[in-house]
Amino acid sequence: MKYGFSDRVKYLKSSAVRDILKIINQGNIISFAGGLPEEKLFPVEAVDQAFHKAITTNKKALQYGETEGVPELRALLSERMIQKGLHRSPDDILITSGSQQAIDLFSRVMFNAGDVILTENPTYLAALQVFESYETNVVAVESDDDGMVLADLEEKIIKHKPKCIYVVPTYSNPTGKVWSLERRKKLLELANQYHIVIFEDDPYGELKFDEQEAQPSIASLDEDGLVLYTSTFSKTVVPAVRIGWIVGPHQIIRIMAQAKQASDLHTNSISQHALVHLLKEFDIDGHIQTIRKTYYERMLIMKRLLDSVDIEGLEYIVPKGGMFFWVKLPPHINTTTLLNEAVAAGVAFVPGAPFYVSDPEENTFRLNFTNSEPALIEEGMKRLVNVLESATVNV
Amino acid sequence: MKYGFSDRVKYLKSSAVRDILKIINQGNIISFAGGLPEEKLFPVEAVDQAFHKAITTNKKALQYGETEGVPELRALLSERMIQKGLHRSPDDILITSGSQQAIDLFSRVMFNAGDVILTENPTYLAALQVFESYETNVVAVESDDDGMVLADLEEKIIKHKPKCIYVVPTYSNPTGKVWSLERRKKLLELANQYHIVIFEDDPYGELKFDEQEAQPSIASLDEDGLVLYTSTFSKTVVPAVRIGWIVGPHQIIRIMAQAKQASDLHTNSISQHALVHLLKEFDIDGHIQTIRKTYYERMLIMKRLLDSVDIEGLEYIVPKGGMFFWVKLPPHINTTTLLNEAVAAGVAFVPGAPFYVSDPEENTFRLNFTNSEPALIEEGMKRLVNVLESATVNV
């Protein structure tokens, strides 16, 4: 039988990164390609205890639950966010199956085909996948080290009348950049002036290397109900728990909850109750400190080895947090081609091109420093440096 | 700020049943309204052990996982379905966040606005919610005790050229009906003749009261790649685990997996690994026997009390499995109005009207018999019988 699919299937793409990972995971390759947290840091004992309590304390916790999420978890998240300056009540929070679902549900209730979304360029690949699946028109705004370039942003707002500006302003995937406070404030001003919703995607905000240099979330600066803010436990507890949350104007959150009801009734409530126990009975902030310290050390090792590369025109941004280095090679190097040579040499990265909305810079790539132990970073970077140096000599 | 939503928001409705449940759960009311399994039967110790093993055996189980689902779980599900005559490989299975998500992802990849779906009438409310959110045109087919009426089905196929026929053929929600073998086969014949996909929603198939009378799934009779079949662990293990699966032609499953990747990356894998342990190390079939026996006893108690009602024109179907009685009152009784009186008397049901695609029969209601212990069924039904009898006398 021949099946007829919906038109939107045309816009569904498998993630280039996930496809690359499938190949890489098959061999004996040191991979800097994924975006995985370090498994050795998973708080297994605390997670085990938390699930044990969630399952055995109250049978109601195993029954069907509320679409909005377990009330105690929303209350705890509200408290944690208030501590960070983001003042929202539990009713303004929707628990989601990872922050990816927050992006999807938001898109479902906000966008018609042809609506314009402004984003950084490059930006988070799987957000682009979602936006494209709703047949929206994603337009890239120029960025520099401090965030979007304001003149270009305003020009594109006027030209395209966007419905939303999507940003990953803190230790972004893929570039590792942090927006300055000034740019955060100016973004809000422009959004307010032109009546545009901001979607602040913040999976990495907790992974800061220097508390002093950290910036407030854009949502915490918002006084006009402009910002939807999403984050996740994937990087601070474990990814498999698949719990994220989104917080913002109640009117939007309420409609997203209706969409979620149709979509999957509610998020896994065993995991939600386990997180309630974890937040109450485990020193999650101490645990996050350990993660930060470990990732910072690994970042420094990778930085030292990147600094040792003798290639004219190689540039990279030193991450102030998060999980990634973003590296730029001389313009004649195509990193998609280079990946084959790297894999042959036993090391992998992700080429930069798929992260671009438009005008991909084919000479860029992303390196993850969180999922390999120091000795593997040393060995993998040695292999990579060889590949890079011979590639630049060969041309 | 005034927010602009997508057009599809118009078609998003909150579930009438969930809204009723919120009110009912506030008082001291015996509720036959929900569709909840019995908490006292939850296999807490086995679930606790299974999660403990899933969390502590292998740190990889806590990392990001495959969109399609944990391979061992898909393999075990494939084996279980083959035992029931449904021959599909693990590659033809997608693990979902409950079977609700299977309906949503299927709709996402199959339906354009205006596409026609044929359904029974009444049918599963939350499937209608999903279909409507994709702006499809749902058309009701006449049914009798054995399933859809074939003459009406063929007439509507010819008239509406539907893309899909959605059915809940086994112990359906809300009517508790079972399709006969002949109707199952004829449905397949018509679907094959007119090239229509069948979506078989089977959350209740395991809850059969008489093994001898059980019917094979429509999917197990399908030789032409016509049927998508979905089921869930919500009724056999616990709802909070939010694990369902969908099985069918690989081409459709593969595209649904791409949609799932954009939607939520992958289903909670702690729960998936826990179910692998549960299926291997726990006598789930013995546990299902206990559930069947308990629900059968409760169904008989409710039946006895329904039989004691002295109202001319009261009709109901004796369920052969599942969780529900579907009751019809004399035509002049409106059960939505009656619910207020019932709640005042300390008992609740769900009015039938919201389950109808069109031409709602306002004199119908649904009773759940699985979530109340025998003494509560006795007491609740006494209250309900009083309400019913005085309502029919009053008019």
Structure, described:
The structure is a homodimer of 395-residue chains. The first copy, chain A, has 395 residues and is of the alpha/beta class. Chain A folds into two domains: 7-42 and 286-394, Aspartate Aminotransferase, domain 1, CATH 3.90.1150; 44-281, Aspartate Aminotransferase, domain 2 (3-Layer(aba) Sandwich). In chain A, 43% of the residues lie in helices and 13% in strands. Chain A contains 13 helices and 15 strands. Chain A has helices at residues 16-24, 44-57, 71-83, 98-110, 125-133, 150-160, 181-194, 218-221, 250-264, 269-281, 284-307, 335-344, 374-394; strands at 30-31, 93-96, 116-119, 137-140, 143-144, 147-148, 164-167, 197-201, 227-232, 244-247, 315-316, 324-328, 347-348, 350-351, 364-368. In chain A, strands 2-10-9-8-7-3-4 form a seven-stranded mixed sheet, sandwiched between helices. In chain A, helix 11 (284-307) runs parallel beside helix 13. The termini of chain A are far apart. Chains A and B meet through helix 2, helix 4, helix 5, helix 9 and helix 10 of A and helix 2, helix 4, helix 5, helix 8 and helix 9 of B.
